[in-house]
Write a structure and sequence with these properties.
By secondary structure, the chain is mainly α. The protein contains 10 helices and no strands. It has 2 domains: 1-157, no CATH class; 162-325, no CATH class. Helix 1 (2-27) runs antiparallel to helix 10 (296-322), helix 4 (105-127) packs antiparallel against helix 5 (132-154) and helix 6 (166-191) runs antiparallel to helix 8. It starts with a helix and ends with a helix.
Length: 325
């Protein structure tokens, strides 16, 4: 089981890095650096596809295909492949140790299914030309993989000796739902390029409640930059997307912050303190992205903060529920 636990911990770390790397690829407009999948113009590396990339650059110098973007995209795919192989290995080890209570072969097998679906979202992201619903689904899929990995790892930890009341368990579950909703809103902001629709703080376009087009902003099944009628997505629609994420951020800070203090009062000092610290950093990163006009490192770090909160909320929910059993 030592090998199983070590592999789980290493894969959690790699999955976290993969999420940040994926954000970096998307935010640097490299999502279509290789316009096919899983290779690059049918080749396994950018080097082998150099002739095709050069031709694409010559045909459209300002287009999405460049050597730098192709390398970013392919490195992300290579890394995703490594994480996928590690997850298959985790499932194999879980089945070999299935008599050990710390192993969960069924959950590990489910994780393989989620990874396969995530791979398809990666393919559709490219083949459907960055359709917002697909790209957001790809982000949520990556965080789901991370959460399942953390859940598997949590089962290998020593059980908590503290007893959590039913109210704390319900509060932790509610906080996870709030976080998942806010991350989905954040993904929708990113995939619709609405991060700078409001460039002022605390107001949005000079008003606390600006003029918005919620219907078109949250019309799910559509192309990038297109509204429900097929026209160009307006600034009012982008404002609606951004403003809703801001409202969600305030709600998330209040709920997760209250959970952090509740955990500290209940004896889960380390988990509560970690949650409060990461939450504060994530909130400041969100403000910084608006204030400094979305610098790439800060925007990628904001995605990393979301992933860190997912890790913490999974661990918190496992701990408070395991202590009641």
């Amino acid at each position: 089981m030592k090998t199983y636990r070590t592999l789980l911990l290493a894969t959690v770390a790699m999955a976290f890095c993969l999420i940040v790397l994926g954000a970096y690829v998307r935010l640097s407009d490299a999502g279509l650096g290789c316009p096919d999948w899983p290779g690059c113009y049918g080749h396994v590396s950018v080097i082998h596809a150099s002739e095709h990339i050069s031709a694409a650059q010559e045909a459209n110098p300002s287009g999405p295909v460049t050597f730098a973007k192709a390398w970013k995209e392919m490195v992300h795919r290579y890394f995703a492949g490594i994480v996928g192989l590690c997850i298959v290995s985790i499932a194999v080890l879980a089945w070999r140790n299935r008599r050990d209570p710390a192993a969960s072969p069924l959950l590990a097998t489910l994780l393989i299914g989620v990874v396969l679906l995530q791979a398809m979202f990666g393919k559709w992201t490219v083949t459907m030309l960055l359709k917002p619903a697909i790209v957001t689904g790809h982000l949520i899929g990556g965080l789901t993989v991370l959460g399942l990995l953390v859940s598997l790892y949590a089962r290998t930890l020593a059980p908590s000796r503290r007893s959590a009341g039913s109210s704390l368990r319900l509060f932790a579950a509610l906080a996870f739902v709030v976080l998942a909703t806010q991350i989905s809103l954040g993904g929708w902001v990113s995939t619709n390029y609405a991060a700078l629709a409001c460039s002022d703080l605390p107001t949005c376009r000079g008003e606390m409640v600006p003029e918005m087009d919620i219907r078109n902003g949250f019309h799910i099944v559509r192309e990038l930059g297109v509204d429900a009628e097929g026209g160009t997505l307006t600034i009012e629609a982008l404002t609606a997307i951004h403003w809703m994420h801001r409202v969600g951020a305030v709600i998330a800070v209040l709920v997760l912050g209250a959970l952090g203090f509740a955990l500290r009062r209940s004896g889960y000092t380390a988990l509560g303190g970690a949650l409060l610290a990461v939450l504060a950093c994530q909130f400041l990163l969100g403000i910084g992205n608006v204030w400094f006009s979305l610098p790439l490192p800060m925007a990628a770090a904001h995605n990393g903060g979301a992933a860190a909160l997912v890790i913490l909320l999974v661990l918190i929910n496992y701990r408070v529920r395991a202590s009641a059993q």
